[in-house]
Request: fold
Amino acid sequence: MKLVMYQKEGDPRLGCLAGDQVIDLNLAYEAMLTATRVLRARARAELMIPSETIAFLEGGDESLQAARETVHWIGAGKKKELSVRNIPVVLPREQVKLLAPVLKPSKIICVAHNYHDFLKELGMKPHAEPRIFAKFANAVASYEDPIPRPAMTRELGYEAELAFVIGKPCKHVPEAEAYDYIAGYMGINDVSASDLTKRDGQNLRGKSFDAFAPMGPYLLTTDELPDPHNLDVELRVNGRVLQKSNTNQLVYNVPQLVAFCSQVFSLEPGDIVATGTPGGLAKDRKPTTFMNPGDIMETEIEKLGVLRNQITAE
Reply:
């Protein structure tokens, strides 16, 4: 499934992107239960498929299975006119805004220096352990959200990355069991103020401005992507390709990162791990390719869609 958070009117809601349509999973499940004469359909739908990603993931495999059954029941456009309490269950994609798949993660964990081509470009050797840092939830941005260039920087850089989202609480996970704790995958961009990270000698300020972590457009569940280690990664600014690689270049792969991070802190449903970026960064190019207001940044990960964001002035 392609899980999304979407908004048309009112609060954001959890949906499934199916072609050019968005299925409201909570309402669709309620409709399915009602059609099969299950008692207390609305209350059961709120319990099994809440209308928010993290609450949904907390339901574990049972909630995921309920969502799969719901999507199958809706079928390929067979119930387009279905409504619950006069609210449409299936909406045309163009009528809604796609939000970040996880709106308020408790953690955004980023991995540095994790692509072999990146290290080769800079003449570096792999680190003995993954290098990690964090962003805050204020950095979350969505598909087509503007990304303001902060007034205190003139060196705004891009970093296209594969991210995975934790689906179950875990601690001290063995690599062999890591996939059991992953809900799915999505694209993310670790937008960076390179002059500030250089000046500070660390990443916190330069990578934590508002909207510095655009993500999405959807979260692809692991049943549709069992192996994330052969995906093309591409970053474009105004149509010019500035990063081009593949996740087979990861130094530390997804199971290794789950195992490593879960040794450091407990991981919770909705936690995001951005796995690092390939070479071609703005600060490393000659001449540099820092982004300016008006530029269009596109982050594309094979099978995970395209993020499109415009740079604006703060």
Observations:
- The helical segments are 25-35, 41-48, 53-57, 60-74, 116-122, 194-200, 204-207, 254-264.
- The first helix runs from residue 25 to 35.
- The chain has two domains: 2-98, 102-313.
